[in-house]
Design brief:
Blueprint: H1 3-24, H2 30-35, H3 42-53, H4 56-69, H5 74-98, H6 103-110, H7 114-146, H8 151-201, H9 206-210, H10 222-233, H11 245-259, H12 263-266, H13 275-293, H14 296-311, H15 321-328, E1 332-334, E2 354-356, H16 361-368, H17 373-411, H18 417-440, H19 446-470, H20 476-497, H21 519-537, H22 543-552, H23 558-563
Antiparallel strand pairs: 1-2
Helix pairs in contact: 1-8, 1-17, 3-8, 3-13, 3-17, 4-7, 4-14, 4-17, 4-19, 5-11, 5-13, 5-19, 6-7, 6-19, 7-8, 7-17, 7-18, 7-19, 7-20, 8-17, 8-18, 10-14, 11-19, 11-21, 14-16, 16-17, 17-18, 19-20, 19-21, 20-21
Amino acid sequence: MSVLTWTYIIVGITFALYIGIAIWSRAGSTKEFYVAGGGVSPLANGMATAADWMSAASFISMAGLISFMGYDGGVYLMGWTGGYVLLALLLAPYLRKFGKFTVPDFIGDRYYSNVARTVAVICAIIVSFTYVAGQMRGVGVVFSRFLEVDINTGVYIGMAIVLFYAVLGGMKGITYTQVAQYCVLIFAYMVPAFFISLAMTGNVIPQFGLLGNVTDGSEMALLDKLDQLHRELGFAEYTSGTKSMTDIFCITMALMVGTAGLPHVIVRFFTVPKVRDARISAGYALLFIAILYTTAPAIAAFARTNLINTVSNKEYAAMPEWFTKWETTKLITHEDKNNDGLIQYVADPSTNELTIDRDIMVLANPEIAGLPNWVIALVAAGGLAAALSTAAGLLLVISTAVSRDLIKMQLKPDISERNELIAARLGATVAVVIAGYFGINPPDFVAATVALAFGLAAASFFPAIILGIFDKRMNREGAITGMVVGISVMLFYMLKFKLGRFGGGTAEDWWFGISPEGFGTVAMVINLVISIVVSRLTAAPPKEVQDIVEDIRIPSGAGDAVAH
């Protein structure tokens, strides 16, 4: 069967599964809509958290980034992995013990202020919409190639699917759908990795294949072979870096602390019955995430090697079918500048004839390697699972921020549960429409767009959360001022250097040589300093708030142990 037929079959089966789960687990109360009733098992929550965490950026774009950037692309791997560890160990158990449904809920109560709550709602919406733009873009990329439709049409299809199970099931439906989506995405990611690793290195384990020798008779290590190919084409060596250490540090730190401030991941720790279960599910999620994240560098190296060997200095007329299929999506473009019929893929932009969108590398990898059609279709289903799972979590954050943190907690406290649930579903519907617009008009490719969302989370939420847990003296004036200044600085920098607003310049004009993806670290430090200074110059929080801060840092049962 053709790739198209296999794609319809596999994607159709997985979509039917997601819709069936959504109908089975539809939310009947606000608690089920917001936190799945608080009764999810640690294992299921660990799988759902992993699916929520591993977005289209992880599945589709991260290996593509590493494939093109080589050593420099490792910052995304380090930042996102380290960030999850930071979240799981430093924040999640304390936030779970605090017992609030959302990050704005925590900030509003911890800082005894509806103004702080409103600022947090605005920050959550900005972060989530920036993040979801990358997911919807990923959905469009997958559909455009494998269902052979326009990218925009692909976004519309993705919107319809997410709208159905996010609006119907809320967090309950999303949680169990994400369990299924994790199984789909990890199977889809690993199967081609096993095939390609065995074919290229003779080792079925991709992590070992990355460090092994290629089986082309040269007896060269895979990474040495890739360095040689890069040198021949004028690119920087794959294993050498070109970014400054300052920028590498800032991007890594922004991704780490941004992770710890992501509202759609934090809320997952409220869906389990107990604080202990939050810790256990965090451990499970880390294990499930590590499977993909330790495989990504291998897939990146395999894809880069196969791509160069397939297209560089080869006849355009003799290109395989996958090349022409991707050309129709305009994610690969070719211009024969010297009219010799060959594809010149080189580093020099004046003579280079091939332009490749980084987001296609994981999706095109099985086709480039000549794997069976069912494997190619499986990867398409995995990419959709990754994008849709995260998109659903983000859309729920947006709808919850509006229905609970804005309407229920501030504008209309006496609203009935039924009407609150209707407001949440309407909020999710509007959020899907806006997310679709951003998916059609994204600021950059998937991983870069997502990295900007992490920078915004780092600049706004992380200081307010970390100081709210560990600093009794932190007050509302400090938190509000810090969040407003932090996210404003990050938005200005992002608009200036990513979207060309405010007389935007080039990379040579970056402040301190720091890219927009890394500037979240600077904005976070500014937020942190301003928050602490303002809190020390204004009145201390009420004693009952300080007592709450003391209490959430004491493990459950510790008081009884001391008493005895």
